[in-house]
Write a structure and sequence with these properties.
The chain has helices spanning 2-18, 21-24, 26-38, 40-47, 55-67, 69-76, 79-88, 90-93, 104-116, 133-144, 147-163, 173-186, 192-199, 214-225. By secondary structure, it is mainly alpha-helical. The protein has one domain (25-40, 55-225). It starts with a helix and ends with a helix.
């Protein structure tokens, strides 16, 4: 009996380990792939700004978040969250918005980086300049609700990731996807030690019991559309 239970437990473990993100979240992945097909020209256009990339590469970085968009939209994008951010800032109302699940704090971090990085001077016009902090927060929300601005912020993020990933410029596509995806999901302001500690963890999707490694999911979804 004990032997039977051991074999059963081992078989279950193998079954769970063999599961991939796209089998557990099949419909979500179909949604992300359809989005990629519908916006292929835009992904390809952004890829021309990033060295050693492609439309599929650009897509892969945000693909995991995109796949969860429909579920998260109903759960998180609430009016009250927007009001809290506009009135009190990111400490009280930082939440994900749009297809790529970007947070206001993410955009604020992008603005700070662009202002202080000479290599990104071409994106300085994307920085919101307004002495009224509340009006600036309103503008960020409006932009994050606009798909074209979401693509623009994705492009700027990829340029930031490129600056912070010089050691990866000659790495394989898989290694570069994992690096860029890690910076996107975890935060490009984290130290390498912090990133290394997080890189192997299964934390995605955040609100699900069936969790996977974000970087591995990015590679998996890249393989679906490359």
């Amino acid at each position: 009996m004990r032997y039977f239970l051991f074999v059963l437990a081992f078989a279950i473990k193998i079954s769970v380990d063999a599961q991939t993100y796209s089998t557990v979240y099949e419909e979500e992945c179909k949604f992300s792939q359809q989005f990629y097909k519908e916006h292929l020209k835009k992904f390809d256009s952004i890829s021309t700004k990033i060295k050693n990339s492609s439309g599929a590469f650009v897509f892969s970085v945000i693909a995991p978040e995109l796949s969860q968009y429909q579920w998260l939209q109903a759960k998180i994008e609430t009016y009250s969250n927007k009001v809290m951010y506009v009135q009190f800032g990111k400490r009280y109302g930082d939440f994900s918005i749009g297809y790529f699940q970007m947070k206001p704090s993410f955009i604020e971090a992008i603005e700070v980086f662009v202002k202080n990085e000479p290599k990104l001077i071409e994106y300085i016009n994307a920085v919101i300049v307004n002495n009224d902090a509340r009006q600036a927060r309103i503008e960020r929300i409006k932009r994050l609700e606009n798909l074209q601005w979401q693509f623009k912020y994705l492009e700027i993020f990829l340029k930031i990731a490129e600056v912070k990933s010089d050691a990866y410029k000659n790495k394989t596509v898989t290694e570069r996807i994992k690096r860029f995806a890690l910076l996107y999901n975890t935060g490009f302001n984290k130290t390498d030690d912090q990133l290394n500690k997080i890189s192997s963890l299964n934390l995605f999707p955040h609100f699900s019991l069936n969790k996977f490694n974000y970087c591995n999911v990015a590679v998996e979804l890249y393989e679906k559309v490359k």
